[in-house]
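Page 42, continued from yesterday. The earlier attempt failed because a stray header line got pasted into the input along with the sequence. Redoing it now with the clean sequence only.
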Amino acid sequence: MKPIAEKSSLLSATDLVECNLVRGLEFGDVWHFHPACEITLVRRGGSERWIGDSLERLTPGDLVFLGPELPHDYRNTPLPNRRPQQVEAVVTHFMPHLLGGEWRTLATLEPLRRLFERARRGLRVGGCTRDRAEAILLQMVRAHGLRRLILLFELLDLLSRSKQLTEISSEGFLVEPRPSSSDRIGVVCAHIEQHLTSAIRVPELARMIGLSESAFSRLFKKYTNSTVPQYINRFRIAHACRLLAETDMTVTEIIRTCGYPSAAHFQRQFKKLHHRSPQAYRLSLRSLS
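This time it went through. C-alpha cells are written below.
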C-alpha cells in the first residue's frame, strides 16, 4: 500500500499554525505524508501508530513530532467483539519554512536545525519534556494568531533543548532523500544509499574522503552512532520495510533487491530489529488498511 501524498497545504488561509482537538471514533487518518510538520498528542484512545517503518501500540500521553514527507497513520482498531473506544488528540500542523529561508545558517539556531533534521525520522517525546509540551499544546488549541505562533516557538525551543527525544523510524525509510551535504560523512551516506545492493567496504569509503580506515571509522561512528556495517544493515532493513509495506514483491525478491547474500541472514537481521518475521510485519501493516 503506497502512502497517499497530500500536496496541498494543510493550513488554513487565516492561521500560520493549525492546532485542532480531534475527538471521535477515529483519528481520520490514512497511510499518508504531507509537506507540513506535525505534532500529535494522543490523550486517550487509539490502537496503533504507524510511522515510517515503525508500527507501535498507542498509549495515552503519546507525543510525537514528525518532519515533512514522513509517511504515517494513526489507528483506532477495536478488539474483537468490542465497541471502539473514543479517541482524543491534539494535532498541530505548520510549514517548515515558517521561519523563512535563512534561519538554518544562523549559529544561534543550530539546536533548532538539528531538531528539524532529526524530526525527518519522527521523534517520540518523553519524560518531563512531554509533560511541559502537553501543557503548551493545550494552550495552543485555545489560542489563535500571534499567540498561537508564540506558543509554537516556545514548544520548538523546549524540544530543541531536550535530551528526552527518541527517533522513531529508520533512516532508510525516508520518502525524500537526505538533502545534499558538503560534509564528508554526508557524501559517504549518500554513496551507501545509492549502492545499497552492492558490496560496500570500509576501505573504499575511507578513500572517498581521503582518510585512513581507522580515522574514517571513528568519524563515521561519531556522526551516525553506528559502525559502517550496522548503518548499512539498518538502511537495508528499512528499505525492505518500505517494499513490504508498499509493494507486492515476494520476500525473496526483496532480499535480492536489498543486497542481502542469504535469506537466513536477512531473516535474522529483520527479527533482531523488528521482533517479527518479514511476513508477519507485512500482515500487521495490511491489517491496518
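Notes: The chain has two domains: 4-169, 178-286.
Reminder to self: strip header lines before submitting.
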